[in-house]
Amino acid sequence: MLMVPVSRAHAGDEFVGGLVGGLIGGAIGSGIANQQRQKTRTTRSRTVYVQPRATSAQRQTAREIQTSLNYFGFNAGAADGVLGGQSRAAISRYQGYMGYPATGQLTEYEKTMLLGAYHRALAGGAEVNQIIAKSNEGARAVLIAQRDGTTGTRTTGYAGLPLSVSQAVDEVADSSDPSAEQLLQRSGFIQLADLNGDGSTDYIIDTALAGSSFWCNASQCKTMVFASTSDGYRRNDLLLHAPKPDSFDCIGGTCQVKAAPAAQPEANTMMAKAEEPEAGATAGLTLPVFNTAPKQKSLSSHCSKVNLLTSANGGFTTVSDVSNPDFALSEQLCLTRTYAVARGEDIIASVQGASQAAIEQQCDAFGASMAGYIGSLNSKSPKAVLNEVSTLVLNSGMTPEQLRTTAQICMASGYQSDKMPAALGGALLLTALGERPYAELVGHHLHGGFGTDDNADMALAWYEVAISALDGGAAPVFAPSQAERIDVVRKAALGLAGHDMTTPVPAASTGTTMPVFTLSE
């Protein structure tokens, strides 16, 4: 093994070093042991038939199939990328459950249906929760919904109610005995008022009147407030007892519970007389000072909406129908996020002696150590940023495989907990380690403004890094079975930056010098 000297400490070294002994040590040790077991063969005859060596893309697809089968309860064994006897038996059980011929060999349609349902279930959101809640099949209900093309949510509103409010009524009804129609007849369950003063009707749903403890704690119940905006209605979930229209302050689509009024002085309390203002001063003017921080956009919430629209549209945007570049790229962001989570979960499963909370805490520290690099995404070229991250690689004292494992674990943890520094930091580190297709994720974050400011031009530059790598023969890291996917990114990225979507994306030159490591087994 080529040893890398540590010349100076870096801001993230303490975290990285700690992770080697904890997360990384377990993951790598387990991986080496598995490799050694796989290399041991016992033959009972002189003739051993060895199947043709599968490509990395084929093995990745096989791992996705095995992971999906295991998720839905069809035990395929370890997700090792080899579809052996146990995997074929699991495929047969899946086929039988879905009403397909139980051959043990997936057709392209059956594979697409399985992987699509897995990604849909993994993305979660209100739609998936409703599908599962309405069925006794648990997560397998998502398979049926995927096969039958159902969404689990209504597509038209109850009479007089917007669709989003009607869907919320169904959501409450699913967790209580009264039907949606019965709830709508209960006085006070839905209250109408113009809460934000824009002249449109806003809606308040008091879940306490559903009679279900699902929505309530000892003193308060969830109140759903739908405030009108130019794009429809925005839902605000607030805790309150006995809500009334005057219980809320709403500005645009954002609502909050009004603060309790300040206590009034008692009648026998003497109040000091206010001094007269000096000449030229503004009498009675009080300027409050608020220390506010911008609220981080929720990628999880964004992807729930995107996945719902994708299902309603009958599937992902294809190259031939890229008419809305922004939405097409949002679909691809949510798809790549799902793959990143699935890959990280596989690694986390092999980590010994570390709880989910401990991993998240470690990855929070990792995200903080990557903050400087993330902060430069809007001001520096991909070449400059990757050169700086390469310094971290050189000075970490870790092998590339250890750093790669760290990045994949923290990227998954960040996406699961909606903490963008860890997720985006992982994508940057993997790109700097030479896995250029991960630059697509950086482009998506810059496009959507998740974890960084949105910047269409910079997003295009990072998309170019990933597209050029794939055009040059790099193995896909996201949805390798969907050959057309990167062409969708290519076309939509051009449209996003205002370019002609028929013009090829030029090859990018990152100019990054990456270290070459030789690892011993």
From TrEMBL:
Q: What is this protein called?
A: Peptidoglycan binding-like domain-containing protein
InterPro entries per the UniProt record, alphabetical: Peptidoglycan-bd-like, PGBD-like_sf, PGBDSf
Its organism's taxonomic lineage begins at: Bacteria, Pseudomonadati, Pseudomonadota, Alphaproteobacteria, Rhodobacterales
**Which ranges of the sequence are coiled-coil?**
none
Q: Which domain of life is it from?
A: Bacteria
Q: Which Pfam families match?
A: PG_binding_1
- Could you tell me which residue ranges the Peptidoglycan binding-like domain spans? 61-107
